[in-house]
Specification:
There is one protein chain. By secondary structure, this protein is α/β, with parallel strands linked by helices. It has a four-stranded mixed beta sheet. The longest helix is centred in the last third of the chain and has 25 residues.
Length: about 475
């Protein structure tokens, strides 16, 4: 359940700093200390954890952590505890957070890296303490459960459904408290990926999980989906050793899709789901399919299918299967200029209404504006096409734009404008979605500042479309 005062919980997340939380004072031990001596020391001090100072094989200093969880795992080893040095069971490569960061940043790092403790550092990088998940939760709200913990511990679909509802409630609270839309998206993306991975583990046989890669596509793959929309997913199967028959595999796919619907993701109208055999193929079959889409097979549907796959992100199973397909796709695209231009041209497929910029300036113009067709899609797809051409492997639109600027393929100031426009579109879509408004945006309903922001955002996308037309020579297609 959410805390009885959710607005107070949100206020704490947004305004409080890591330094405001209870930080455990760092207690250091040498990596050579044996476990019995260490546990005796911790018992005398009333501690359950210690930071481990050690020297790596290359001679560099490293810092790790030892907790009671590590002790549990150590007791399962063949060596007796007195013969084990703490360096052999401690975890190194710690995740750190600055003491002046807000609690939202700390929460996001815990979720992203799947850790229960963060090392807290000052401006100079010195360790000042350890922030535990329970300490963070205690500060944020008494008895408030974190969705990530619910997901990890879920053993049934009903328990996952509760976690999904908590994520939805969290989105509304964060948006209502003024948290930037890109920060909400980053946290929701991490939680959704973890939720889908847990669902797949619950439904798919272990041998299938080990020999396949479940991927999410489209906005979910780009990390830009905040509110649940369509199911967009696929499955990459290893070429050898398929553990299930086709009917058995189809049954697993169906149960997964039905479970997603129960969690709030409706089936995809375009059938871009692993229930469709087209989106459930072996690695070799996928290679042939991608090659066909690059060559233009499938017409407009093939172009959009390729666009969906370009955003694929692994959420469960063997991620190397997706990585290999990406390596195979890149030379296919870069070696086919016509196919790439045809692919990019999809960003320019939606015609703008006549004199739209002029009419937007008139407050009483009530013609609807489709922000997805005129705003989000051309921006997202244009960045996707340019990234494919440049060999950029990032899937998020902002990351793609930043990489294009770093490579000198887009002006840095223009990239800032495009990023701002994308976030404005995302914010509008989130606000309308939370209000239950699925209708197109009507400029007459906007105030002066929002109307000007709409004009600016659409003008930025219009410039981007002009750049794409010139860059890919759409007039020659």
């Amino acid at each position: 359940m959410l805390s009885q005062d959710p607005q107070r919980e949100l206020l704490t997340l947004v305004t409080a700093r890591v330094r405001d939380a209870f930080l455990r004072k760092p207690h250091y031990v040498d990596g050579a200390t044996d476990l019995v001596s260490l546990c005796r020391d911790l018992s005398q001090r009333g501690l359950t954890q210690a930071l481990v100072r050690d020297v790596a094989a290359d001679g560099s200093e490293r810092l790790g952590i030892f907790t009671t969880t590590d002790l549990r795992d150590a007791l399962l080893r063949e060596q007796p505890p007195h013969a084990l040095a703490v360096r052999e069971v401690a975890r190194f490569g710690l995740v750190a957070v600055d003491m002046d960061a807000d609690l939202f940043e700390a929460l996001w790092r815990m979720v992203k890296h799947r850790v229960h403790r963060l090392v807290v550092t000052d401006a100079a990088g010195a360790v000042v303490g350890v922030l535990g998940q329970l300490d963070l939760v205690s500060l944020v709200a008494n008895h408030s459960h974190i969705a990530a913990l619910q997901i990890d511990e879920a053993a049934t679909l009903a328990e996952l459904r509760e976690a999904a509802r908590r994520i939805d409630a969290m989105v509304a609270l964060l948006h209502g408290g003024g948290v930037r839309v890109e920060r909400i998206a980053s946290l929701v993306s991490e939680l959704n990926s973890r939720l889908l991975a847990r669902l797949w583990q619950l439904l798919a046989p272990p041998e299938l999980v080990a020999t396949s890669c479940l991927v999410v596509l489209g906005s979910e793959g780009r990390g830009e989906q905040i509110l649940k929309t369509d199911q967009d997913n696929a499955l990459i199967l290893a070429d050898a050793g398929m553990p299930l028959s086709e009917p058995e595999l189809a049954a697993v796919a169906r149960s997964f899709s039905d479970a997603l619907a129960a969690l709030g993701w409706p089936p995809c109208p375009g059938d871009v789901m692993l229930t469709n055999p087209l989106w459930r193929q072996t690695q070799t079959q996928w290679t042939h399919t991608l090659h066909g889409w690059v060559r233009g097979e499938g017409g407009p549907d093939g172009v959009m299918n390729l666009a969906m796959f370009a955003d694929a992100t692994a959420v469960a199973g063997d991620a190397a299967l997706l990585h290999t397909l990406r390596e195979r796709l890149q030379p296919l695209v870069q070696g086919h200029d016509t196919g790439l231009a045809r692919f990019a041209a999809a960003a320019d497929q939606f015609a703008e209404p006549g004199n739209w910029l002029t009419r937007l300036a008139h407050r009483h113009d009530d013609d609807p504006v489709d922000l997805k067709k005129l705003g989000t899609f051309p921006l997202v797809h244009g960045a996707r096409a340019l990234a494919l051409q440049a060999g950029i492997t990032d899937t998020g639109t902002v990351a793609r734009l930043a990489a294009l600027a770093a490579a000198g393929r887009l002006d840095a100031a223009f990239v800032r404008d495009l990023t701002d426009a994308l976030h404005w579109f995302m914010g509008q879509r989130l606000a309308h979605g939370l209000a239950g408004d699925a209708a197109p945006l009507r400029p007459a309903t906007l105030g002066t500042l929002d109307r000007e922001a709409l004009q600016d955002a659409l003008a930025i996308v219009r410039r981007f479309r002009a750049h794409l037309r010139q860059h890919f020579h759409f007039d020659t297609l």
